[in-house]
Specification:
Elements: E1 3-11, H1 15-33, E2 36-41, H2 46-52, H3 58-66, E3 69-74, H4 89-99, E4 104-110, H5 123-126, E5 130-136, E6 144-151, E7 161-166, H6 171-186, E8 191-196, H7 202-218, E9 223-228, H8 229-238, E10 245-248, H9 250-261, E11 271-278, E12 284-290, H10 307-319, H11 324-339, E13 342-343, E14 354-355, H12 358-370
Parallel strand pairs: 1-2, 1-3, 3-12, 5-10, 8-9, 8-10, 13-14
Antiparallel strand pairs: 4-5, 4-11, 6-7, 11-12
Helix pairs in contact: 1-10, 1-12, 6-7, 8-9, 10-11, 11-12
The protein binds 1,4-dihydronicotinamide adenine dinucleotide and magnesium ion.
């Protein structure tokens, strides 16, 4: 029997509260589906700083490199706001992403029918929405050189300064994230729409050519289309259901993934994954985490919505372990509790519902799993 190794890093604030519900879900799959997980737990962020004086211990980093997948809750909190930049809780998360070389950031935007009225768009535009944005995460304009602010004495330049950032992509960087997108598409709707600005940027021309090359040579079975990113932004709010997987660079992906997220409602519902190169066992390096932060305003009150973290684990089942059936089961269980009207505080809209705490939501999801 395959045993899947997981490193759980609950982190700070509501991180441990939502992760406790994921632990229950893991236990359910072990007891009811015969799956075997080797779970270890460690500290990240402020919790790691409190114990080790830094936001990620070297031993924890080594563990993260060795496991099949890392699940992270959230990091940060007001207690750590005055810390030196290099010691801040966020640095723990950034170190994980950097040293694991997680170049593909996955942000699904999925609209559960029961929450369609939460969207800022009309129900008929978003109902049934299920798209996945794959954003390149480790290169592009946020990292390219040269960069900086310097003096510029061009005649007529009032103020005498210039700010520079460089959009730079190598073909290798484009190909590897394109492969991730095509692999993911094969596990979903088998369609990829790649977005850049090849009309005005050379890096966009290279992006388009390299994505097409990977498609033609390695994934001819996946349907590929290209779109200028500004049109992509319009299409996302006009008719988002036309997309399956959207592949885009770091900058456009930052903006488009946040816009797409809001098509579906609460921050407490949004999962994410960051994937790197395949390991020896063929699985990609992987870190799964909810999009939300540590929510200090509701910490310790049983108010946190555990669904973002639970759906992150569903992504782990699907994308790290190829357990698509189990991932579907878990997503269906979430859909069921929402259809039953169960609502953590963040999901309480004008139409009401049955208020539940963090752990009640987890219990009801287990019950919905058992009822399938
Ligand atoms: P946040 O995401 O923690 O909270 C924003 C708002 O959404 C708050 O009102 C919060 O109560 C609510 N919220 C968030 N997650 C929720 C959930 N699961 N259920 C119900 N309500 C939820 O962002 P904020 O307030 O800007 O940052 C708080 C701390 O978290 C800061 O220290 C920040 O640096 C850190 N942070 C960490 C992230 C991470 O670990 N990846 C991401 C974003 C922020
Ligand atoms: Mg952003």
């Amino acid at each position: 029997m395959t045993t899947y190794s997981l490193l759980i890093l609950p982190g700070d604030g509501i991180g441990p509260e939502v992760m406790a519900e994921v632990r229950k879900v893991i236990g359910w799959f072990e007891n009811n589906r015969g799956l075997s997980f080797d779970v270890s737990e460690d500290l990240v962020g402020g919790a790691a700083y409190d114990k080790h004086g830094k936001p990620l211990a070297d031993e924890t980093m080594a563990k993260a490199q060795a496991v099949d997948a890392v699940l992270l809750g959230a990091v940060g909190g007001p207690k750590y706001d005055e810390l030196d930049f290099s010691l801040k809780p966020e640095r723990g998360l950034l170190r994980l992403r950097k040293e694991m070389d997680l170049f593909a950031n996955l942000r699904p935007a999925q609209c559960f029918d029961a929450l369609a009225d939460f969207s800022s768009l009309k129900r008929e535009v978003v109902a049934g929405l299920d798209i996945l944005i794959v954003r390149e995460l480790t290169s592009g304009v946020y990292f390219g050189e040269p960069r900086g602010i310097s003096a510029d004495d061009t005649p007529g330049n009032e103020g005498g300064r210039v700010g520079v950032n460089t959009q730079r992509y190598t073909s290798g960087e484009i190909r590897r994230v394109a492969r991730s997108a095509f692999e993911l598409a094969r596990k979903r709707g088998n369609r990829v729409c790649s977005m850049e600005k090849a009309n005005v940027m050379e890096s966009g021309i290279l992006w388009r050519e390299e994505v097409q090359w990977v498609h033609d040579n390695e994934y001819p079975d996946v349907a590929l289309s290209h779109m200028y990113a500004d049109n992509g932004a319009m299409q996302l709010v006009r008719n988002p259901r036309q997309f399956d997987v959207i592949l885009t660079d770091n900058l456009f992906g930052d903006v488009l993934s946040d816009a797409a997220a809001m098509l579906t409602g609460s921050l407490g519902m949004l999962p994410s994954a960051s994937l790197g190169a395949p390991m020896a066992n063929g699985r990609p390096k992987a870190l799964y985490e909810p999009v939300h932060g540590s929510a200090p305003d509701i910490t310790g009150q049983g108010k946190a919505n555990p669904i973002a973290c639970i759906l992150s684990f569903a992504m782990c089942l699907r994308y790290s372990f190829d357990l698509g059936v189990e991932a579907d089961m878990l997503e269906k269980a979430v859909e069921q509790v929402l259809a039953d009207g169960l609502r953590t505080a963040d999901l309480m809209g004008p139409e009401g519902g049955t208020p539940v705490s963090t752990s009640e939501m987890g219990d009801r999801i287990l019950a919905a799993l058992s009822a399938q």
